[in-house]
Design a protein that fits this description.
Number of strands: 14
Shape: globular
Low-confidence stretches: 1-8
Order of helices and strands: HEEEHHEHEHHEHEHEHEEHHHEEHHEEH
CATH superfamily of the largest domain: Type I PLP-dependent aspartate aminotransferase-like (Major domain)
Bound molecules: pyridoxal-5'-phosphate
Number of helices: 15
Number of domains: 2
CATH class of the largest domain: Alpha Beta
Strand order of the largest sheet: 4-10-9-8-7-5-6
Length: about 450
């Protein structure tokens, strides 16, 4: 009989729950890698079950080691705006690799990338940018720079804001720290966080009070312009502009951490979208097109304080490495050329509005937040404007929903306190398949009396 790949038994499964192969790999991983993972949220600790291992990815889909094909809303935690393995990006990286993986020396491509970034990102126009290898490095370096430039010690961050895992930033942190219920981190000394002040997200009044309480002491306010690491929480109208004014009035720097939102919610990031220009911007994720790249930059006067021009030291063996630059530069070129943002907006709205409608139909309380192609459905009624609101979500119910969706071929971030992302490959068929899965998943929650 002729081979028939469309026969039911050979169609890729949509059940993404860890099968025998993933479970075997996870057992091996746990023996040699702490928790079996190289970053904590991947462990599925808050949603139960074991993580499916990923073998490959293309477009909007992941393929697991168990042979399941899943619709991906994690997108490598943000970078995959062009979908996975975009042919042009893969080709650019391959070409770069053939010329050598890393030189630790100056290259033409890094100059081209810096020039493109300074043309496209409003906060970098007329300014300067430094490439690093992660979002953590970008925020950590920007804060050192802010302290060095202003000569002041203190910084302000939002509760539930996550800016990477530098010591001074692991206070009331979002993302994995929120997921695991870890308020700070062991190993961080009191001295390291003594100059970190925390305020509720979306409260300019709290920032004003902090400035009043510490006159001449605050170097910078660092904020995600759209919070993503307590789940997606948009800024209230006027919030970012108020921060801008407060910082300018106090002689402090406004640092917008656009590691997640940069090139995600608009080509010019959230600050382009909302028209508020920070002194420094931090980039990551999409800026590396799937490779480990971060960047920070802004006003020339401030950036000139960095070594070798100035006294603030920051360095990196692999900074500006050719593969990362090739992936980032090509991704940016495609985003500029194709302007996918109106389509991303439409697809995301169709998905998130659809989810909200289905939840309501099944009597499940869901508060959906979305900006462009990033969103979170919080399992609670009412609105979510800060970390305290986000924490009011029913995380057990989220966990149940996560498992139901995974069993139906939809891969969501394994935590209530994360944003979900669409790519240009999340087309109508993908959205329809997701909503069909969600219909059944909400029905299962309602049937279990958990709505
Ligand atoms: C807003 C924000 N800043 C910084 C970081 C840290 O970036 P990385 O994980 O590349 O170190 C993240 C990571 O999720 C982030 O979302």
């Amino acid at each position: 009989m002729a081979h028939d790949p469309s026969s039911t038994s050979e169609r890729p499964s949509r059940d993404g729950r860890a099968g025998a192969r993933s479970r075997q790999l996870f057992a091996a991983a746990q023996r040699r890698i702490p928790g079996g993972v190289n970053s904590p949220v991947r462990a599925f600790a808050s949603v139960g079950g074991e993580p499916p291992f990923i073998k490959s990815a293309r477009g909007a889909f992941l393929t697991t080691e168990d042979g399941a094909t899943l619709i991906d809303y994690v997108g490598s935690w943000g970078p995959a705006i062009l979908g996975h393995a975009h042919p042009e990006v893969v080709e650019a990286v391959t070409r770069a690799a053939q010329n050598g993986l890393s030189f630790g020396a100056c290259t033409a491509a890094e100059v081209e990338y810096a020039e493109r970034l300074c043309a496209v990102v409003p906060a970098l126009r007329g300014g300067m940018v430094r490439l690093v290898s992660s979002g953590t490095e970008a925020t950590m370096s920007a804060l050192r720079l802010a302290r060095g430039f202003t000569g002041r010690p203190k910084i302000i961050k939002a509760e539930g804001g996550y800016h990477g895992h530098a010591d001074m930033l692991l206070v009331a942190a979002g993302s994995g720290a929120a997921t695991l219920g870890i308020p700070g981190s062991a190993g961080v000394t009191a001295a390291a966080v003594a100059d970190t002040l925390t305020v509720p997200f979306n409260s300019a009044e709290a920032v004003a009070r902090a400035f009043e309480a510490h006159p001449g002491q605050i170097a910078a306010v660092i904020i995600e312009p759209i919070a993503g690491n307590m789940g997606c929480v948009p800024p209230r109208p006027g919030y970012l502009a108020a921060l801008r004014e407060l910082c300018s009035a106090a002689g402090a720097l406004l640092i917008l951490d656009e590691v997640m939102t940069g090139f995600r919610v608009a080509l010019g990031g959230a600050h382009g979208r909302y028209g508020v220009t920070p002194d420094l911007v931090c980039l990551g994720k999409i800026v590396g097109g799937g490779m480990p790249v971060g960047a920070y930059g802004g006003r020339e006067e401030v950036m000139r304080a960095i070594a070798p021009l100035g006294p603030v030291y920051q360095a990196g063996t692999l900074s500006g490495n050719p593969l990362g630059v090739a992936a980032g530069l090509t991704t940016l070129a495609i985003l500029e050329r194709s302007d996918p943002y109106p389509a991303l907006e439409r697809q995301s709205a169709a998905l998130v509005d659809g989810l909200a409608r289905l939840a309501a139909r099944h009597g499940v309380a869901l508060s959906a937040n979305r900006v462009g192609a990033m969103w979170t459905g919080f399992f609670r009624g009412g609105e979510v404007w800060d970390y305290s609101d986000a924490k009011g979500s029913d995380t057990a119910l989220f966990g149940r929903f996560h498992r139901e969706m995974l069993a139906r071929g939809v891969y969501l971030a394994p935590s209530q306190f994360e944003a979900a992302f669409l790519s240009i490959d999340h087309d109508d068929a993908v959205i329809a398949q997701t909503l069909a899965a969600a219909d059944e998943a909400f029905a299962a929650l309602a049937a279990a009396g958990e709505g």
